[in-house]
Design a protein that fits this description.
The structure holds two protein chains of two kinds.
Chain A lengths: L3 H28 L6 H18 L3 H19 L6 H22 L6 H14 L5 H7 L25 E9 L1 H5 L4 H11 L2 E6 L17 E8 L3 H6 L8 E7 L8 H4 L16 H5 L10 H4 L6 H5 L12 H27 L6 H25 E3 L1 H18 L3 E6 L4 E3 H22 L3 H7 L5 E10 L2 E8 L6 H10 L11 H7 L21 H10 L3 E7 L3 E9 L4 E9 L2 E6 L3 E5 L6 E4 L3 E6 L2 E7 H4 L13 E7 L3 E7 L1 E9 L4 H4 L5 E6 L5 E5 L1 H7 L6 H6 L2
Helix pairs in contact in A: 1-2, 1-4, 2-3, 3-4, 3-5, 3-6, 4-5, 14-15, 16-17, 17-21, 19-20
Chain B lengths: L3 E5 L3 H13 L3 E5 L2 H11 L3 E4 L8 H10 L8 E5 L4 H10 L3 E4 L4 H11 L3
Parallel strand pairs in B: 1-2, 1-3, 3-4, 4-5
Helix pairs in contact in B: 2-3
Classes of the chains: A alpha+beta, B alpha/beta.
Chain lengths: ~700, ~120
């Protein structure tokens, strides 16, 4: 089928949503925060996955989902109680279902023995009587389409051979109410073979007692056919039970036809139809009129349609590539708008108030468009946070600890790309919290802490950035141990005096790992330094804070978008460069007395008693060897990572504006100190600095904030 | 004039599949996500046939059938149930609520189309 590939993609996207709904629902039941419909929603999620998987013939998935669904059905009907053990098994099954779907997505499958173990463990808790037995009975047959609705066709004998078959057919009033159209049935019957139709209107009453809601007509169709009685009767499959039906013919002496020879009264549950189109029941041979012509003339909405006002606002799904294209074009628009502004401002005739005002409006509009487009890309962090529940479950199980995840600010919206790239660092941070942060249950009991450890994940918008924290209520950082390890690994000198914050910051150094024994979880050779560089790659920073005995808090601060940033344009060594405004703390013109030399090459700037590493941007980036008089007289103090700051010497500040970020990594790889590039209004390219990385690029030691603090 | 079908299913995959299959077969297709959505669209769409799933949030297939049959808009439109369920009790319940026919998922495209043609005509 054309487009089948697309449909499968849709299925997997939908399956992901269903899996989240499933897991979220199960968690709600576990924590007792479920709503009336939660169990149903959980059931439906698995049911829909089963349906979709069936459509793509993913048999293992269908089988698993079906047995899973059976257990959920027992839960739904109240036969099973949502006890802790059962919910644990349900969550495990839901995790496994996610694995199965993800395997199918890659064209593979999970280990069928594992599938079986997981579902059997669940079924064992559900009383077990469902399970395998029902599964045998449950087979998807793609061709078993119009399986008998009311009629047991198998009971009709297969009689072949040319003969005359006569069908007497009289619909009940209820047949019309159920949407049946005798004309279509007669048409189908005639389609089988040559047929003769006669109208039986013997039941028509006197006009005085005629009830338009009743059915008075019948038909007798005589077929000359070689087809079996079963084929003939199949036409009436759906309407059976809503009509009197008799089949007689040469073979009708067969007692097997008895069910049809005796008219079966259909349960007439329907109120007499008030708008029955008379013409149809009286003259089917002329074909049916549009069924709803009569009712369409009375378009009064039913009370039901009026009552449903709680429907969520309509949404559309858009391919992310389209939005990205829009972002790209928008970037060009911003650049050209800047170029246009510059060209007009420099043209001889400039000075008209109208032009000025229009340019201003254009600027405002393009900013508004930008914000709107960014809002399209923005997504709540909820799905990301939801995925972390599983991480907590698995990590705590592997570490032999008891932990639960609490989330906050799930509705906070962030650029989609950032959300996607946050999954790995966040996973690692949470594993770390459980592996290294939380104490074992026994130890917690001794300390008088709740046996179950809590990892709190929260998100919030703060001054144009998004702040995500991972907080545990564990032991906190053992600073003596951290320091000892850092000294052993040669990361700091044994004599260095470090503040508690600086010791905490050691955790982010490459090559640092506190795990004395490599654990299955966080000891995968990935340290917090990787987390830090991943976050830095997103233009973000990671901070750490810890209180001994009370826990550790990791804080990530990120820009809201990766496409544009507010930048300060400045000059250094004849180059035009850009600094992200979000990093800038202050700009000053320092006096000579504020500067202190540190050894031969390095110097610090004393800003109100705080000594900051002083770096000349031009030298650090290799644009010049040393400063000449009149150069580097302006200092920009920028934040870097954790809570340090550095002072950057620049030659002059041009202006502050929004710039479009153009990545360099694809063409040039990672350049220390450079985050990206942008195109300025005059068409020239300017590099965007990454201040967190700048010191490393220059002549200063890689960790100036540590060596300097020892001063 | 082509037959107009209101297809109701809470699964996006299923809706998309129905849209493709039914459009290819030459039908006009309007999609709804659940019973409530279908009822709201019913007056505007005036379908020649409703194809509905059973298991749906907000209002399920039984609720939809019941509401259509007891409502003022197209009360006698043919309604086909399209579901993964195959239990006889559910079929009987659907039939007594006023369903016109029953199709079991996953469906075969040709049979789906021919079943639709069996019960509906423009």
């Amino acid at each position: 089928m054309a487009g089948a590939v697309d449909l499968k993609d849709i299925f997997f996207v939908e399956a992901d949503e269903l899996l989240s709904a499933l897991e979220e629902g199960l968690r709600a039941i576990q924590t007792g925060t479920q709503e009336a419909d939660t169990v149903n929603a959980v059931f439906r999620a698995v049911h829909s996955i089963k349906g979709g998987a069936g459509a793509f013939d993913l048999k293992a998935l269908v089988g698993f989902a079906h047995r899973f669904e059976t257990v959920l059905d027992s839960l739904r009907s109240g036969r099973l109680l949502p006890e802790a053990a059962l919910l644990g098994a349900l969550l495990h099954a839901s995790d496994h279902l996610a694995d199965m779907i993800s395997a199918s997505r890659q064209g593979g499958s999970t280990d069928s023995e594992l599938d079986e173990r997981v579902i059997l463990a669940l079924e064992a808790l559900s009383g077990g009587e469902g399970g395998a037995k029902e599964e045998e009975a449950f087979v998807f047959e793609p061709l078993a389409l119009d399986g008998p609705f009311g009629m047991d066709l198998a009971a009709v004998p297969l009689v072949f051979g040319a003969r005359k078959v006569s069908v007497s057919f009289r619909p009940h009033a209820g047949a019309f109410a159920s949407g049946h159209d005798p004309a279509l049935l007669l048409r189908d019957l005639c389609g089988i073979d040559e047929a003769e139709i006669s109208l039986d209107q013997s039941a028509l009453p006197e006009p005085g007692v005629f009830d338009p809601g009743q059915s008075y007509l019948g038909w007798v169709v005589t077929l000359q056919t070689e087809r079996s009685d079963r084929d003939v009767m199949a036409v009436f499959d759906f309407i059976d039970g809503c009509c009197d039906l008799t089949l007689t013919g040469e073979a009708s002496a067969d007692p097997g036809l008895a069910p049809f020879a005796e008219p079966v009264a259909a349960p007439d549950l329907f109120a007499p139809p008030s708008l029955l189109p008379e013409a149809r029941s009286q003259d089917p041979a002329q074909g049916a009129k549009p069924q709803n012509s009569a009712s369409a003339a009375t378009p009064a909405p039913s009370p039901l349609t009026q009552g449903a006002t709680t429907t969520p606002r309509p949404t559309i799904r858009v391919d992310i590539d389209r939005v990205d294209r829009l972002v790209d074009i928008l970037g060009e628009l911003v650049i050209h708008q800047a170029m246009l502004t510059e060209a007009i401002e420099q043209s001889p005739g400039f000075g008209s108030v109208d032009v000025d005002r229009s340019l201003d409006q254009l600027r405002q509009l393009s900013r508004q468009i930008q914000e709107s487009v960014m809002a399209i890309r923005a997504q709540p962090v909820k799905p990301l946070f939801d995925r972390m529940h599983r991480i907590v479950r698995e990590a705590s199980m592997a570490a032999g600890k008891s932990a639960r995840l609490v989330t906050e600010g799930e509705a906070t919206e962030v650029d989609k790309t950032i959300i996607e790239r946050l999954a790995d660092p966040l996973t690692h941070m949470i594993r770390n919290s459980i592996d290294h942060g939380l104490e074992k249950a026994g130890r917690r009991d001794e300390l008088g802490k709740p046996t179950e450890g809590v990892v709190k994940l929260s998100a919030a918008h703060r001054s144009g950035r998004i702040v995500i924290t991972v907080q545990d209520d564990g032991a906190g950082i053992d600073r003596d141990k951290v320091r000892q390890i850092a000294v052993e690994k040669g990361l700091v000198s044994a004599t260095a005096e470090l503040s508690p914050q600086e010791i905490d910051a050691l955790l982010f150094l490459p090559g640092f790992s506190t795990a004395t024994e490599v654990s299955a979880l966080s000891g995968r050779g990935v340290g917090m330094d990787v987390v830090r560089s991943e976050i830095a790659g997103l233009g973000g920073r990671v901070g750490i804070a810890s209180v001994r005995g009370q826990g550790t808090t990791l804080t990530i601060s990120l820009p809201l978008t990766l496409a544009v940033l507010d930048g300060m344009v400045f000059e250094a060594a004849g180059q035009t460069l850009v600094l992200p405004v979000s990093h800038i703390i202050e700009t000053l013109r320092p006096e000579a007395a504020m500067r202190h030399n540190l050894g031969l090459k390095d110097s610090v700037l004393d800003v109100r008693g705080r000594c900051l590493p002083l770096i000349d941007v031009g030298t650090a980036l290799g644009f010049r060897r040393s400063l000449k008089p009149g150069e580097g007289e302006i200092v920009v103090v920028v934040e870097r990572g954790d809570d340090g700051a550095i002072a950057l010497m620049v030659d002059g500040i041009r202006d502050q504006r929004q710039v479009v970020i153009k990545g360099l990594e694809a063409n040039y790889g990672q350049i220390p100190g450079i985050a990206a590039a942008t195109v300025l209004g005059d068409g020239s390219v300017a590099l965007i600095l990454d201040p967190t990385d700048l010191a490393a690029a220059g002549s200063l030691p890689a960790r100036p904030h540590i060596s300097l603090a020892a001063e | 004039m082509s037959l107009r079908i209101l297809a109701v299913d809470d699964s996006l995959t299923m809706r998309e599949m129905l849209r493709q299959t039914l459009t290819e077969a030459g039908f006009d297709v309007v999609l709804a996500e659940d019973g409530i959505d279908a009822l709201q669209q019913l007056p505007d769409v005036a379908p020649d046939l409703i194809l509905t799933d059973l298991n749906m949030p907000k209002m399920d297939g039984f609720g939809l059938i019941d509401a259509v049959r007891k409502g003022d808009v197209s009360p006698r439109v043919p309604i086909l149930v399209l579901t993964t369920e195959s239990a006889a009790t559910l079929k009987e319940r659907a039939r007594s609520s006023g369903a016109t026919g029953w199709i079991t998922k996953p469906f075969d495209e040709q049979s789906l189309v021919s079943t639709i043609r069996r019960v509906a005509a423009v």
